[in-house]
Amino acid sequence: MAVIGLEPGGLIVLSNKLSENLFGSGKNTLLGSDSAQVFDAELKDFWDRVREAGQIDRLLSIAGKSYTAKGVKILTDRGQEGVIMAFIPVVPAVNVLQKE
């Protein structure tokens, strides 16, 4: 599962190896990047909707593959704010009952 954390202005403050492979060059290039430089229009829209709704799940196509995207807005009593997004690859269903 690829995971990205963003601060309210769109700065990427958390990324794991899978998110680096999915959105970056795979060489720790996402941390400190502006999401506007990394995300396409569909992903920007998803991020905006998470910030508005607080929590959202959506099926997205990224690099030609399907992902279940889950986003949660974080707001603590100490004033910390941001968004965490996770991208889970959709695996095609296999019919185990089908006879060959």
List the helices and strands and how they pair.
Blueprint (H helix, E strand, L loop, with lengths): L1 E5 L5 E4 L1 H7 L11 H4 L2 H13 L1 E8 L2 E11 L5 E9 L11
Antiparallel strand pairs: 1-2, 1-5, 3-4, 4-5
Q: What is the count of β-strands?
A: 5
Low-confidence stretches: none
Number of domains: 1
Strand order of the largest sheet: 2-1-5-4-3
> What is the mean predicted local confidence, pLDDT?
90
Helical content class: 10-25%
The structure class reads alpha+beta
First CA to last CA: what distance? 32 Å
Biggest pleated-sheet summary: 5 strands, antiparallel
User: Would you state the CATH class?
Assistant: Alpha Beta
Question: C-alpha Rg, in Å?
Answer: 15 Å
Output the number of helix runs. 3
**Per the principal axes of the C-alpha atoms, what is the gross shape?**
globular
Q: Approximately what portion of the residues adopt beta-strand conformation?
A: 35-45%
Topology as a string of helices (H) and strands (E): EEHHHEEE
In CATH terms, the superfamily is PAS domain
CATH architecture assignment: 2-Layer Sandwich
Examine the coordinates and then state which fold CATH places here, giving the name of the CATH topology: Beta-Lactamase
List its salient traits.
single chain; 100 residues; Beta-Lactamase; 5-stranded antiparallel sheet; 5 strands; globular
Question: Concise description?
Answer:
By secondary structure, the protein is of the alpha+beta class.
